[in-house]
Design a protein that fits this description.
The chain has about 200 residues and is an all-alpha fold. The chain contains 8 helices and no strands.
Length: about 200
């Protein structure tokens, strides 16, 4: 099936790998421009954050609200992933106070788009993300991706930066590798469970 702007979200939700490739090809430049702007003090983590962003869009495509603009949502996802990386890697930066300032300002800017009760949830989820690295307990992670539908991200405020063909391939390769590793892990769990049942 041919992937285009009109069916990208539907195909992401159906877990079509070609949709993942289209996402990186068509939106990679915008995403990396957001990431480079926010992680300028941590350049060695920019590509990893891009992979994390694309993976988050892939994993949480169901959280995207169809009345929202897709570019706005993925821009908000990228900003959120940047915040996670800034919080998790503050001590690595040479200018720690600058990162702290960036975290505070970016949280506030994102939160101003939310209603009061949503803002409280946003801060709670950000706090969970800080204390547990970049993972969440009890499936609350999807909550944040639903909230990101309400955050305005002017994607054109971030100057488009090129993402080379090689960089696109590396990002896709890393994501495919993670997906395969995840599948193997789940298969091993199922196997161990089935052997336990047979032994009992």
């Amino acid at each position: 099936m041919r992937i285009g702007k009109e069916n990208l979200v539907a195909q992401l939700r159906l877990r079509n790998v070609k949709a993942l490739e289209y996402l990186v090809t068509e939106h990679g430049e915008r995403l990396i421009s957001i990431i480079r702007k926010h992680l300028f003090t941590l350049p060695h983590l920019q590509q990893e954050c891009l992979c994390r962003t694309v993976q988050a869009v892939w994993d949480h495509a169901a959280s995207f609200r169809d009345d929202n603009d897709f570019e706005n949502w993925i821009g908000s996802v990228a900003r959120y992933c940047c915040l996670q990386y800034l919080q998790a890697h503050q001590e690595e930066a040479t200018i720690a106070w600058l990162i702290q300032k960036e975290i505070i300002e970016e949280k506030e800017m994102m939160a101003t788009c939310l209603r009061t009760e949503q803002r409280q949830v946003f801060y709670q989820l950000m706090e969970i993300g800080t204390t547990t690295g970049i993972t969440y307990a009890d499936n609350r992670e999807s909550d944040i991706y639903e909230l990101l539908n309400n955050i305005e991200t002017d994607i054109f405020e971030y100057e488009k930066e090129p993402l080379t063909l090689q960089e696109q391939k590396e990002v896709l390769s890393k994501i495919h590798h993670k997906k395969r590793a995840k599948r193997r892990m789940f298969s091993l769990r199922r196997y161990l469970k089935s052997t336990e049942l047979q032994l009992s």
